[in-house]
Amino acid sequence: HVQLVESGGGLVQPGGALRLSCVVSRWIWMNRCMGWFRQAPGKGLECVSSIYSDGSSIYYADSVKGRFTISRDNAKNTVYLQLNSTKTEDTAVYYCVNGASDVGYNYWGQGTQVTVS
Question: How do beta strands 4-7 and 59-60 pair?
Answer without folding.
Answer: unpaired
